[in-house]
Amino acid sequence: MLPLLNDKITTQVKAVFEKLQSPVMILFFGDDEPEMNEASAPARQLLEEVAALSPLLSFEAHDLHAEADFAAQFNINAAPSFTLVSVDEDNFTDYGIRYKGTPAGHEFTSLISDLMLVSSRDSGLSPETREFLHQLTAPLHLQVFVTPTCPYCPRAVVLAHQMALESEWVEAEMVEAEEFPALANQFSVSGVPQITINHGAGTVIGAVPEGQLVNEIRAALRK
Q1: Per residue in 72-87, is it b (16+ CB within 10 Å) or e — as a string?
Q2: pTM of the shown model
């Protein structure tokens, strides 16, 4: 099997990973059925190659159907999907950071940024946004629809994942619209990035600034 990452990219990513602070595990959920594995296999290979670039990263693969109960703990219901969790000895912490689809193209940047984010255990958000998120008392679900060719999508994905890291009430999911067209059609995705708030209570088009996204979330929560 030929590697997906060339030597140049591997060298660049290794240099970035020198700043990793704490262990992170990639929990991957694939589909081993022959007709479905065509989509899961490339995603799995990419994540395995990335995890091999630092001793602070690890990778664990699970079958979505054979381990449905475990997948349900992370609200994962489709393959390929994965989540990033922090690891402390034999325990891990789930921050609600999800990926549905392969982080290819520009979304590879999101993956690397998110690994650094989880490793730091610090969202990096403004004090105002942190205060807003700490006041949440009900679940907040963010879906960021992307395509691999969109240069603006990683900023929207990472911002949503920063919010998930900051608050236990927030679950944020990157959705690769081309891999999951039915889901994209369900939420009338016509341009990316599109952030869908609480399953359609609000919709934001574009990689908007942090403060604007907070305002859009506030408006959706009032509905």
Answers
A1: eebebebbbbbbbbbb
A2: 0.96
